[in-house]
Amino acid sequence: MFVNKVVTAVGAREATPLLKNMLNGYMSQWERIYIGATAHPKMRYEQHRLDGWRRMVVIYEAFLPEIARGMEQALIAHARESNFRTLVVNTTPGGEGLSTARRSNFLYVLCG
Q1: How many structural domains are present in the chain?
Q2: pTM
Q3: 63: containing domain
Q4: 55-62 and 105-111 as β-strands: parallel, antiparallel, unpaired?
């Protein structure tokens, strides 16, 4: 299931605590999560779905790749440092796969 709950009209600094709270909600309900960023969320969802992920929630639109990279890294770190029993599937700090092209990138959470 592809769900779009994008936080908009808020800068990265203001959005970070909102996104961490949103992430806490997903970690309290799911056994495993993955945090990612992509310029093409629907196409990325189809790739993840083939790997067995049941739900992808797009949570933020970053208008520059640098913002997306920093927010992805902050959310992965937050998830790893939390006290939830949820498995954080990310194996890297985040942001490695983002293009440097000046375009929007969307942060998302996979739940399974």
Answers
A1: 1
A2: 0.91
A3: 2-111
A4: antiparallel
